[in-house]
Amino acid sequence: xxxxxxxxxxxxxxxxxxxxxxxxxxxxxxxxxxxxxxxxxxxxxxxxxxxxxxxxxxxxxxxxxxxxxxxxxxxxxxxxxxxxxxxxxxxxxxxxxxxxxxxxxxxxxxxxxxxxxxxxxxxxxxxxxxxxxxxxxxxxxxxxxxxxxxxxxxxxxxxxxxxxxxxxxxxxxxxxxxxxxxxxxxxxxxxxxxxxxxxxxxxxxxxxxxxxxxxxxxxxxxxxxxxxxxxxxxxxxxxxxxxxxxxxxxxxxxxxxxxxxxxxxxxxxxxxxxxxxxxxxxxxxxxxxxxxxxxxxxxxxxxxx
Length: 305
What we know:
The chain is of the alpha/beta class. The protein has helices at 2-8, 25-41, 56-63, 122-131, 146-158, 170-179, 189-197, 221-224, 244-259, 261-269, 280-300; strands spanning 14-18, 45-49, 71-76, 98-114, 137-140, 163-166, 184-188, 201-206, 231-239, 273-274. Strands 1, 2, 3, 4, 5, 6, 7, 8, 9 and 10 form a 10-stranded mixed β-sheet that branches. The longest helix is centred in the last third of the chain and has 21 residues, at 280-300.
């Protein structure tokens, strides 16, 4: 039966739900993967944007879809892990209501300051913050975002007190950072790179577990404060009870797509660190995200409405 399912699938177009607005990096990556997956499966893969509630709306739609392999979602940290740890009344169980098929990769941020900030290194920034409790601030894309959580982890691990300033968009945050209203900002390296190159911003650290290939001279944050890493992540998931043979087929195809050298290069350009973990490894990654951020969320009493 499983072999027959695998041989028959797919027999019609596949819907890939992106739970974010069109035009962002998630949408661009989904369309790149979708196009290659369409070629591999010889069937249309239709990308559908279903934004809302911090990616929960589109993710919930897929959780409640038929488990037949024809409705998939680009799963992400706000809706799967650790986002639900900060929200009450989730409409689904992020572990039990999905078949988590394959992780695509992670999105580390950069920590940037204005060009004339007195801190020239991350260690100096932390030293200044430690000497002025409650005076320094940092900005992110909002409470619960990857940058915000990394900032909270940094505060707890380094023993510093900084004020968080939430923003809804990169543009206003960068303007305020350059203008001196902010001390620091956790921002996508893709967005920050141009400002760093033209000398308006200074990159003090990257938040991945290793240095960026684009800025190999800039330390990873965990080189300065042990254990401090952070970033967004994206994967492909489907509804619970997806037939094993279909999940296995999708895993193999998507892993091959992400591992292709030209796709690796393109994803890196878009700020992603490719990490195509499949099946149990992808599930283990999700569980590790909850284990890592759960104590940070609890210690900071963080709640997202």
